[in-house]
Amino acid sequence: MAADEPLVLGIETSCDETGVGIVRGTTLLADAVASSVDTHARFGGVVPEIASRAHLEAMVPTIERALKQAGVSARDLDGIAVTSGPGLAGALLVGVSAAKAYAYALGKPLYGVNHLASHICVDQLEHGPLPEPTMALLVSGGHSSLLLAPDITSDVRPLGATIDDAAGEAFDKIARVLNLGFPGGPVIDRLAKEGDPKSIAFPRGLTGPRDAPYDFSFSGLKTSVARWIEAKRAAGEEVPVRDVAASFQEAVVDVLTRKAVRACKDEGVDHLMIGGGVAANSRLRALAQERCERAGIRLRVPRPGLCTDNGAMVAALGAEMVARNRRPSDLELSADSSLPVTEPHVPGVQHGHGHAHDHDHVHEISKDNLYS
Length: 372
Description:
Blueprint: E1 7-12, E2 17-24, E3 27-35, H1 37-41, H2 48-70, E4 79-85, H3 89-106, E5 110-114, H4 115-121, H5 124-127, E6 134-139, E7 144-151, E8 155-161, H6 167-177, H7 184-192, H8 219-234, H9 241-267, E9 271-275, H10 282-295, E10 298-300, H11 304-307, H12 311-323, E11 345-346, H13 364-368
Parallel strand pairs: 1-4, 4-5, 6-9, 9-10
Antiparallel strand pairs: 1-2, 2-3, 5-11, 6-7, 7-8
């Protein structure tokens, strides 16, 4: 870690977790998270208004905690990065507003970055600089995507994506049918280890010869599993929960890994990065490793804590933006719930000279009121 590497604070509020991370270059200094998942659990899913309120309450304490953990002052920062999309509009707005306030008062450049590109960039914190191009499989509650990134700061190309339910969404819905609570991913992963993945032949969506080679569909699988469970219950038979969990999970990870390896081969890329919340799934990791080794592909997967939404991933992408001299965002930056992955960050409008915005107008009294 070199002292001249960019020191960046990242804020993530796209869904139900308030994440604040601080990195210097590709070195993680702090990763503070405040989760509201327990509050949402009784509703069986994330309630946007509750998530927004939780972010508002957690923001300042989480930023303070991250600065303390990193052992740095807010004045030492070289930039503030924030997820500006995609995600829940109200939740994003809290993070973007906080980032703009800190950037303005501290006189630091602001970088509005893409949530999905951040999930790719976080791997730099664990395995070093990303290869170029990077092939990434992103799987979470809202996204299942295959992406090729020649340059994570400016060039991310979608090869395929879900046409209906994302993988994580399917996990949550099947967990609900099995009365396993929310979120569904961790509990299904745990129960599947005690079940037989070959016991029930659930369908593999979009795997036919005429189907889109890199797109995903889990809606049909979800419906098939739900009907299978309903038929068992209607017949008065006990549902073999562990076998259902194992067979369902196997159907999901089989499709994900099969298409990802195919994309690597087709594009001539000798490595695969997997990110997003579902990347914490133990069977996905194991099967991906097995298939990548067989195909001569190097697998990069961050540790589970960096796969779920966090501020470290946003800070990692922000630091890369600073290192590559990408143009900062304007203070007029807005939250964009449908920000396309082809836009890794939202640059400001270039004025006559210098950066997109000038901080000389920041009042000293504002700076003095900030945490040192």
